[in-house]
Write a structure and sequence with these properties.
The complex is a heterodimer.
Chain A (H helix, E strand, L loop, with lengths): L2 E12 L2 E7 L2 E3 L3 E5 L6 H8 L7 E6 L2 E2 L5 H7 E4 L11 H6 L14 H13 L15 H14 L4 E5 L7 H18 L2 E5 L3 H7 L2 E6 L2 E6 L1 H4 L2 H7 L4 H10 L5
Parallel strand pairs in A: 4-9, 4-10, 7-8, 8-9
Antiparallel strand pairs in A: 1-2, 1-3, 1-5, 5-6, 10-11
Chain B lengths: L1 H28 L7 H8 L6 H36 L11 H18 L6 H25 L3 H25 L5 H8 L8 H20 L1 H9 L1 H6 L4 H23 L5 H13 L4 H25 L8 H25 L1
The chains are: A alpha/beta, B mainly alpha.
């Protein structure tokens, strides 16, 4: 299997101040990668760099064999879709309109949807099970519904990679499972590569092919669930001190 | 579902066009001298019945009405662009101080030229207004770096507007010339005294701007969602923002150069149009806002001219009466959503 995305000596951060240094990772097509780490470790920052929403301070991201920085916006948007935490600002949009924006890179000069575009939108909405929301005002649906609409939007872009920033954080357990099952299905059917940051360690453990652990200013570990999810390592990664750990044991709260 | 929507759009456009036709005719017919539709048709088709009526129609009413149509549309369009740019439904050239900045520069240019007994050409005035508009826009953009809250940005814009108006008043007060009466009227916003030469210049400038804005409808659609989404869909956001700033400033400048600052049309018209179409598609909203602004201004100018005839009201007096409540309604609705 070939690497679909890789980084070389990538240093990222804001305003020239490095947050994470020297990232060298390679991700294969069809993998599900989760990024974990304490708050403020740079999970979102890394995702933004992979999506070219932020420019690296040093180093380079490669998409297949192309330098990310040299690709045109439209090429990039046909390969990479994002589902970040930014709220959609558009007003007076129903759910269909929001999903339809995913076809943007493929439509003609004035952005009018072709019948093929419409077909893809329909199929995607069915896949994500949101056909019923078509006419609903996007601002008036629940968090779970909103997140699924946003997923449909991203999948409409027919990407090879989808980058998600804490996509399941505000979902109840049923919607979490539904959401993840769709990602897994896309992985099986279309060989979609999924890179996402999560806070729920149990999810990361069960769904990921590999897990990227960020801590301090480095990639602390990048490995399979078996390698990452040991009690000692997770405690170390999140700085769970002895007394806190004792409390967790008392209350029988599992770390993952 | 698609059909129902299309029907709505067609009806909405039909209503707008019909409304414009009706008010266009009313504007030509009604005034200090009432002219029957028959006489208007006669004059327009070139058959002279009464020389005076002919002159009134051709030299006063028609150029003015056409100017109201063009400038009203431009006002709404520049408002629409600014609202898109700031993701803020109450942004507009007047509240952000852009109109007043343009006004200040035009007044300075006029007085400067008058003092050397030169007559300012339309293009010179547009240039001066554009410089003023860009100055204020630049200032507003600098402030957006420090201010996150939209309401505070608007307050700052209004303050900039006051400063510019104060400077304008000062210049107008101390300038001494017969033309000052005109300058005074103009500085408060008025469509009076339009000539065909004015109309030609504004038609060209605004037609070009309109086409450019229309060509941007696809990236504007993406930008509507928010910047990160637009970037994710391959839009060059930086370039787009530059275009929006330049075009909205040019439109505002053109309006101010000819009619002075006109309040609230830029906010009210696009808002009503969005409600009418219940859509956010720039492809529809750009032409519809233009038509909506035209209709709104034709209506307001009719009132301004005739409500207290022979005294003519400032156009802003009328637009404010109808426009300001709309702004209040928008603000109230915002709050409701914030709480829920």
């Amino acid at each position: 299997m070939t690497d679909i995305i890789k980084t070389e000596k990538l240093t990222i951060g804001y305003n020239g101040k490095p947050l994470i240094k020297d990232i060298n990772i390679a991700i294969k097509k069809g993998e599900i990668i989760t990024i974990i780490g304490p708050n403020g470790a740079g999970k979102s920052t890394l995702l933004k760099n992979l999506a070219r929403q932020l420019d690296p301070i040093e180093g380079c991201v490669y998409l297949e064999d192309f330098k990310l920085s040299e690709m045109s916006g439209s090429e990039l948007s046909k390969k990479v879709a994002i589902l970040f935490t930014d709220r959609i600002k558009g007003e007076m949009m129903n759910c269909y309109d929001v999903v339809a924006t995913g076809r943007y890179p493929y439509t003609g000069y004035f952005g009018v949807l072709s019948s093929k575009d419409k077909e893809i939108i329909e199929n995607t909405m069915k896949l994500v099970k949101v056909e019923g929301l078509r006419e609903k005002d996007f601002k008036k649906i629940s968090d779970g519904q909103r997140q699924r609409i946003m997923l449909a939007r991203a999948l409409c872009q027919e990407p090879e990679i989808v980058l998600l920033d804490e996509p399941t954080s505000f979902l109840d357990i049923r919607h979490k499972l539904e959401f993840l099952s769709i990602l897994e299905k896309m992985k099986e059917d279309k060989k979609l590569t999924v890179i996402m940051s999560v806070h729920e360690l149990d999810i990361a453990q069960k769904i990921s092919d590999r897990i990227l652990c960020l801590k301090g200013d480095t990639v602390d570990k990048f490995g399979t669930p078996e390698e990452v999810f040991t009690e000692e390592y997770i405690r170390e990664l999140f700085d769970v001190a002895e007394d806190i750990n004792k409390y967790a044991e008392e209350k029988n709260i599992k770390l993952f | 579902m698609g059909k129902k929507r299309t029907l709505r759009y067609i009806i909405a456009f039909a209503v707008l066009v019909l409304g414009i036709c009706v008010f266009f005719v009313l504007n030509v017919c009604i005034g200090s001298v009432k002219i029957s539709l028959k006489d208007v048709l006669a004059a327009v088709s070139g058959r002279t019945i009464d020389e005076t009526i002919n002159t009134i129609i051709w030299n006063i009413r028609l150029p003015r009405t056409v100017a109201v149509f063009i400038l009203g549309g431009a006002l709404a369009l520049s408002g629409y662009l600014l609202q898109t740019f700031f993701h803020n439904p109450i942004a507009g050239p007047f509240v952000l101080g852009i109109s007043s900045g343009a006004k200040m520069c035009v007044a300075l240019a006029m007085v400067f030229l008058l003092s050397r007994s030169l007559k300012a050409s339309s293009l010179t005035l547009i240039m001066a207004a554009f410089v003023g508009a860009m100055l204020c826009m630049g200032f507003v953009l600098l402030m957006t770096r420090r201010i996150d809250s939209m309401a505070r940005l608007i307050v700052c814009g209004v303050m900039i507007g006051y400063i510019c108006s104060a400077i304008t008043e000062l210049v107008v007060t101390f300038a001494s010339d017969a033309d000052i009466v005109n300058l005074h009227n103009w500085s408060r916003g008025s469509f009076s005294g339009m000539t065909w030469d004015n109309v030609k210049v504004m038609a060209v400038v605004i037609a070009v701007s309109f086409i450019l804005v229309f060509l941007l409808s696809k990236p504007l659609d993406a930008y509507n969602l928010g910047e990160s989404f637009a970037k994710g869909m391959g839009v060059n956001v930086k370039v787009l923002r530059v275009f929006i700033v330049l075009l909205s400033s040019l439109l505002s400048a053109c309006i101010v150069a000819f009619a002075g600052p006109i309040s609230f049309v830029g906010i009210a018209a696009p808002h009503l149009i969005k409600k009418l179409f219940n859509s956010s598609k720039p492809l529809l909203l750009i032409p519809a806002s233009f038509l909506g602004g035209s209709l709104f201004c034709l209506f307001c100018d009719l009132l301004a001219r005739n409500l207290f005839a022979p005294t003519e009201l400032n156009i802003s007096t009328v637009t404010a009466v109808f426009g300001a409540p709309i702004v209040i309604i928008i603000l109230l609705n915002r709050k409701e959503r914030g709480q829920s």
